[in-house]
Amino acid sequence: MTTAAPRSTAATTPPAGAVGTAHTRVEGVEKVTGAARYAGEIPFAGLAHGWLAVSTVARGRIRSIDADAVLAMPGVLAVLHHGNAPRLETDYVGMLGVRPDPTCAVFQHDQVPSMGWPVALVVAETSEQAREAAESLVVDYEQLPHDIDFHSGRPDAEGLDGHMPAVTGKGDLEAELAASATVLDAEYTTPEEHHSMMEPHAATARWDGGRLEVFDSNQGATWVVGELARMFSLEPSAVRVRSEHVGGGFGSKGVRAHQVAAVMAATVLRRPVRVVMTRRQMFSLAGYRSPTAQRVRLGADADGRLRALEHRSLSLTSTVHDFVEPGAGHARVMYDADAHHTANQVVRLDMPTPTWMRAPGEAPGSFAMESALDELAVKCGLDPIELRLRNEPERGPVSGLPFSSRNLAACFREGARRFGWAGRDPRPGVRRDGRWLLGTGTAAASFGAGAGPSTAVLTAEADGTFTVRIAAADIGTGARTALTLVAADALGVTTDRVRVRIGDSDFGPAMIAGGSMGTRSWAWAVNTAAAELRERLALGADIPPEGITVRSDTTAAIGALAQKERHSYGAQFAEVAVDVTTGEVRVRRMLGIFAAGRIVNPLTARNQLVGGMVWGISMALHEEAVRDRATGGHYGADLAGYHVATNADVRNVEADWIEDHDPDDPVGIKGIGEIGIVGAAAAVANAVWHATGARHRDLPIRPDRVL
Ligand code: MOS
Fold this sequence. Notes:
Bound molecules: dioxothiomolybdenum(VI) ion
Strand order of the largest sheet: 3-5-1-13-10-11-12
Strand content: 15-25%
Pfam families: Ald_Xan_dh_C (PF01315), MoCoBD_1 (PF02738), MoCoBD_2 (PF20256)
Distance between the termini: 77 Å
Low-confidence stretches: 1-15
CATH class of the largest domain: Alpha Beta
Largest sheet: 7 strands, mixed
Number of domains: 3
Keywords: Molybdenum, Oxidoreductase
Protein name: Xanthine dehydrogenase family protein molybdopterin-binding subunit
Mean pLDDT: 96
Number of helices: 17
Organism: Streptomyces anandii
Structural class: alpha+beta
Oligomer: single chain
Domain Aldehyde oxidase/xanthine dehydrogenase a/b hammerhead: 33-145
């Protein structure tokens, strides 16, 4: 056997930078040929299949579960429920600073706090046997009255801090409103919305030589390890979570009932157990976006400067867990006023617990605030872009902090130029194309640009290639490809010499794919490791057969970041056509211009921003989970009943960006995960007003609401 001659990278010529050049997905061929294995399809010898049984009442108590009847069915191995399931530890605060949602800590008591609550796991030799048995399982409930009635003005609404303070306030709101030349007071609502990612939640758990191993579909292996270790009272080092390929997440893929149930069953049966959620189960077990009811009051002086701003947002949470959808957060960063008051409130209902979904807070919050600004602009007789430019703050309106960078005005200027905004006739309802009324609208976008500590392991291999190992999650974003480009640049080599391995908690702790912070956080760690490795190689080190490995940890560097208001910004534009005979709204074209830090891979970045804007179309026109108040359950809990935008809804959607390198990030990245949806629904709604003269303050803008 011969070994490749040791070689030093210092001798190679650095290529023109990989970061900023379009690169197809490094795992693209694997994905389109089916070679990429997802959590629900990895083969295991002796695999057993679990099927969740969920409650058919919205509130109550389990009187009895007739497990014996289904244990006699073909292939059935076990029925886990509150009467026999292992006890879990649930009194802790996890990696993301929150307590576990009891919905995920399954089978610990006989209470049923919402429709679709997990009550049992039936395990069988095949998934068909498990399903047959789970659907035959007779559960007797003592049913109690339930309340799922979400609306504004609930007397039991309360402030809840969540990840940001519930309330902020300065100045005398009523006095400034009274002194304003123009006042707007309007209420906006958004419905219950669901993530609806392609790949359902799935996990396979097995014990392997004293270690628990879980093959899972999630947004962060480190996060899932932390939660499972605590719940099952294990050392984190005794748990390994792997999730190389993930078919979408949108905020929903953290720790959920299926992983916990799979671990329980694998522990009890001492064999690998797989649990996959059905699409229908995802409507109650996977989290969702709470509906919101928002009130916005704005007061402006004669030249459009805001004197008063109030944004109050009500959302719901379950009776078992605290979660807040912080709709009122948008104005805290975007607009200042002499009197500036914002509040997020929740009401506790007999509903499943909502969770983060696609720009949590910002997506519904920007619908209300960016619609309200459009309404105010009309009242003031100002162009809506001009109104926003007149209200550009010098510092964070609530934080008082300087902006790390804020290129919102530049986004509007560039967007207006490319969209053809100049000379727009502000009058509504005056443009016609046959039976269609035409209109254009705009809105601002913003999303936080944070970073979380991560570790990366980087090896210079003896054959001249490099291996990056990081517990990153590529949930469809292109993160793995972006990290390949970042590593290549930092090492000064071509991308074909870099191999990036992700989705394995054994690679060390890393940030989740969430909060638009994934790629930025991981890139920081990869860049740091690469810099150290390059230094070592520059000293002329020969590479031994096992390679040279360095490990980075960005905890200290991120902790040392100066306090600034760190956000990405954008300007959204939409042109709609409204059919006056059917009430149908068509988005003819959309343009988003973003200032979102350095763009690592234009190909996948454009993909992601356009994807977010498509979600905005979807939010504006289609998405709405409808519940039956009598039973607490959904009508049409599937992708036929829950409408998302499809190809026919997406005509001409363009996303682009302006130069906006983050000065404090070693690669210049900010994050693009969520900003694409922010403001997009408002831009569409504002365009519908411009087309028709009718203001739509309730989403979605269904045909029956248009007529
Ligand atoms: Mo995102 S909603 O933080 O996954």
